[in-house]
Amino acid sequence: MSPLKRIAYFFGLPILLIALWYALSFGSTNFFVPKPIELAQTLWTTWIGERFVDDVLPSLGRLAVGLFFAIGLGIVLGLLIGSTRWLRNLLEPLLEFFRAIPPPVLVPLLMLLIGVNDSMKVAVIISGAIWPVLLNTVEGVRAVDSVLSDSCRSYGIRGFARIRYFVLPAVTPQIMAGVRQSLSIGLILMVISEMFASSSGLGFTIVQFQRNFAIPEMWSGIVVLGLIGLGLAIIFQFVERRVLHWYHGLKEITHDS
Amino acid sequence: MRNQRSAAAGPKAKALGLGIGGIILFFLIWEATPRLGLVSDRYLPPASEVLGRLGQYLTEAAFWKDVADTMTSWALGLVIATVAAIVVGLIIGSSRFLRRATHTTIEFLRPIPSVALIPLAVLIFGTSIESTLLLVVYASFWQVLLQLLYGIADVDAVANDTAKSYGLGPLARVRYVIWPTALPYLMTGLRLAAAVALILAITAELIIGTPGLGKQIALTQSGGAISSMYALVLATGMIGVLINLGARIIEKRVLSWHPSVRGEVVL
């Protein structure tokens, strides 16, 4: 495909949609729908500067810390539970139950146990985002190739080396699949924890705009959240390609043959 | 075959026993933590008290009304999202041009967290059920659509060409070539969407205050009825488990004909 065509495909529909939005909102005085230019201006004036430092950065910080612990703990516990059969059998139904609890209901619960502060919000993110990673890791460890596992054993590879060079690489595709789900759950919980109980942060600010009928500002907040989601997706894709390049390569080869 | 099964029954029963043991152990630890004073029972009531409250809830009509409200918005949202995603997915998936042209737009809209729409929902619909529906539909739509698009991309080109040369029209090809290939993916998408829809339904009730279990949780929390709050959280977990189990059973039923035993979802 020629580069020109590729660019046309890439930007074609988005440009068309924005043009349509522009045309439809041109003459309208609808209070709820801002005009594109107005929105872009609001986006700039509302979020760049003080508010970025006061509201956006702390939110992102909590999200990062929460996700870091959720993914780290998820992998470590998942490896532990996955490789010990009795532990897995003991905990599996319980973990299924915890995963099934809709994470937002943990917000009032953790508010009670921890209080309204940063650690509560981080705890909310961890308690919701850990399950996809944890359960995927357990599932992955259980499904490792038994021939490879036996080979490792007969070569005397055990303990840390076994985990580092055999289990972890074998499970990475599953872990990454879990991480992907964790990212979106973490973002949702970041917003909810701030909407429910907070006096700062992105979620709080957006709800505040809505209560004050600051409609363009509210829309711009939605756009900021969308951009954060998009940013996370892009970072994830980059990391996944790095970490799993061998896996995608392998899949291509097996598909071709 | 029969020998295998009876041989497998032993460890299976043992695993089940251990699993039940794990749950009992969890409740024992929960019971002991406030009783020993590790956490104040004002914040964490003993398990027996919460379970008692849950039992009491099960006899109350108001509780079942809340469950019905939550499940109604869940089911309605899921159906709307699925139908919309199937229609859109089949249209986009049927043409290379559309698939390419919509790619960026989908990749941009999909990661927008559905909770970002909460203020919009409040503004337009207030605390009526439509608010919940907006969030549920938005969140589950992408789950189904993306899986369906993966599925359609997976259609065997030779099979499709063969169908074409045998004179199958576009509709017949959708029915006999594309649909069977995409169905496993669609079921995966549905299973994921079912879980996400519950999360969003409860979230909307919790934050916006549309009627349902989530609203009740927020009310009990602010009213200081702590054991009631824990009981309701347990109830939502049970609903979640039932939905997950139900989705898996339906998936197995619908795909019983499918030759390959698909590995767990990669998403």
From TrEMBL, chain A:
Keywords: Cell membrane, Membrane, Transmembrane, Transmembrane helix, Transport. It is a multi-pass membrane protein. The chain crosses the membrane at residues 7-24, 63-82, 94-116, 122-141, 185-207, 219-239. Pfam families: BPD_transp_1. GO terms for cellular component: plasma membrane. It comes from the Bacteria. It is found in: Cell membrane. One of its GO terms (biological process) is transmembrane transport. Belongs to the binding-protein-dependent transport system permease family. This is ABC transporter permease. It comes from Cryobacterium luteum.
UniProtKB/TrEMBL annotation, chain B:
InterPro entries: MetI-like, MetI-like_sf. GO terms for biological process: cellular response to sulfur starvation; transmembrane transport. Keywords: Cell membrane, Membrane, Transmembrane, Transmembrane helix, Transport. It is a multi-pass membrane protein. The keyword Transmembrane helix applies. Its main location: membrane. It is found in: Cell membrane. The chain crosses the membrane at residues 12-30, 74-94, 115-141, 185-208, 229-250. One of its GO terms (cellular component) is plasma membrane. Coiled coil: none annotated. The keyword Cell membrane applies. Belongs to the binding-protein-dependent transport system permease family. This is ABC transporter permease.
